Protein: BHLH domain-containing protein
Amino acid sequence: MNSDSSPSSRASSPDMDGMFLRDHHLHHHHHHHVGSSVSSSTQSGDQQRQKMTGGEHLRSGDAKSASVGSSSNSNKYKLKKQVTEEEMYQLRLKINGRERKRMHDLNLAMDGLREVMPYAHGPSVRKLSKIATLLLARNYILMLTSSLDEMKRLVGEIYGGHVFLHVLHPVERATGAHVYPSTPFLDEGLTGCAPSPAAGLRLPALGRTAVSLHHLPGASSSTHPHHLNGPHETHRGGKGRDEMMSAVCDRQRLRHVMMIVNR
DNA sequence: TAGGCCATCTGGTCCT
DNA sequence: AGGACCAGATGGCCTA
Structure:
């Protein structure tokens, strides 16, 4: 399954069963055979299967053949040796299929996360990348946590401290410093300007695909399709927080808040 | 065209 | 032993 069903989706994914073995995988110890691997990616499944089951298909780098060679039990060795190439082919297909399913499930979970993220959804909006989704989610959680804490403090003040429930933010617990999301959800993780070292999300080493911070949706530009800033404040005491406070002052909503707090 | 993002395959490791 | 998980490698698609 291709999880990209949005405008950002690829036009097509290679035939799954057909690409179970690329040329560069057959030549596992000879990576960077660019020329041959390019053509192999367009081969049909039958063509690749023929390679796999052909005379020179099993290199020492192959997992199963390697396990055969490393076996210390001679009987086991003979049994392993009897595994036919067809069986190995089927096993490879099976393993690849499991891995595909695992990644698809991961992508489904990522889609579920995107659905609850505060950014523009829609068919005309490019969906968040995986890294952007995770960074946004983290900062969104941080913001919600501190907002909840502030609501509870306000409720406590209104009721003369009788219902004062100060829930320490995880970062506060770790550092003793009070935490407010001073930047848009995504911005914090992207810039590394987290409230504290404990909260700072360091960008992982992304290999050849280094993330361009300024290109991530909503990171800085308000003209980008994703407005992560949206109705949420960009700093302490911003518009979003004012709205929240006014909402809390609404008597009906205050009752609702009290129900939640005292639950 | 380069860079970003992604899907897929693969081999290794860990767990049940 | 088999499955889950992970990271590396590779090629395809898209966009600035």
